[in-house]
Amino acid sequence: MLAFRKFKTAFIPDKYKQKGILHTETKNRKQLSSERVLSHSIEIRDSGCKISHCKLNHSKLKTLNDLKSFFTTQLDKKTVMTLNWQTQLSHAFTDVQTLCLYLNLSIDNLNLSTESIKKFPLLVPLAFAERIEKGNPSDPLLRQILPIADELKNYTGFSDDPVGDLNSVKQTGLLHKYHGRVLLINTGACAIHCRYCFRRNFPYADLQLNKQQENDVLQTIQNDESIQEVILSGGDPLILNDARLARLFAGLEAIPTLKRIRIHTRLPIVLPDRITDEFLMLVKNSTKKIVIVVHCNHANEIDDYVALACERLKSAGVTLLNQSVLLFGVNDNLEALSDLSKRLFEIDVLPYYLHFLDKANGTGHFQVSKEEALALLTALQNRLSGYLVPKLVTEQAGELAKQLVF
Predict the structure, then answer these.
(1) Looking only at Cα atoms, what is the longest distance across the chain?
(2) DSSP readout, 46-71?
(3) Could you tell me which of 300, 393, 388, 394 has the C-alpha nearest to residue 338?
(4) Which of 126, 152, 178 is the last residue of a domain?
(5) Domain count for the chain
(6) Picking from 3-12, 31-40, 55-64, 222-231, which range would have the lowest pLDDT averaged per residue?
(7) Can you give the residue range of the structural domain that contains 72?
(8) Which of 56, 159, 276, 330 has a Cα-to-Cα distance from 313 of 20 to 30 A?
(9) How far is CA 385 from the centre of its chain?
(10) Does a structural domain hold residue 2?
């Protein structure tokens, strides 16, 4: 049985009420946090092996065997999912040995690279890790987050800025590539580190918005009447708390020429408890049209928690779209793409974009050829209704729009 916290029933679809999955835990979050949670500060040592990021609030955990026993007997999704999203995120896996131990994987057979981790650290919430098939080194979800040595290879045509973001920066935190819309770099933080990320090398420290810069950007948008849509990006904008988002929304809603607020986010997929009642009220009451573009690459990423998060967003009047990336070893086959589109539509999300891999340094091992991609999309079109077939696109620096390939 799912163990969701208590939500306002206005945002709970009837089928979930009927299934009886509402969480009725009477303990408050602080009490739960002090009694039952992972606490990522305790070091666990075994024969000199240090696992520094598995902080477990349990005095008996001394060795790897103790840790394994904890994972197999006490660590369950029901416990963790009673916590708020920020607490869940604070307990994300950041150590590859700990993650592999949880997934019953031997680190000796995974082509792991400590240098890859140094360049782009591991970060995986338990809510996402729980959907990875244990004991399967080829799991498509695992491949998206596992730091391997192939990231260190040099591939022709790959760079740190594959889509020309830096040339599109008009002022700190504001990118203006396409007519009528601008993109805000609200934060450099994410809830998960996807190894294929096209902004894995982006200089967030220099270009993400602080409070004063945010005010400056809002003034710039207000002064340009051609801008009708603002895209909140990052990083992941839903890493910002509800109060910070409410302040940003208030500023955007005060601009009369602005029609739409679009949010690009992976959090409803990887950490669905981020969709709080407060956030739902924010988008429901907005004077602008709200579009949320989630990022899901494989049907196995969608469990009942994700389905509920998306259906709650839909009930709040949000338009939901999905963008995926075509990734070697993840979704580069007909069954995977077909299952993804059908599963997305089941939870009221429209498959919109399927991106070619953006050629960011460290991601070349995910590349799928244009010939293979076109063959896949032709087969997908022959199998599915047209509205279930995403647009195959590529983004090229300097172009006035994404380039439609299929």
Answers:
(1) 64
(2) ETTEEETT--B--TT--SHHHHHHHH
(3) 388
(4) 152
(5) 2
(6) 31-40
(7) 9-152
(8) 330
(9) 27
(10) no
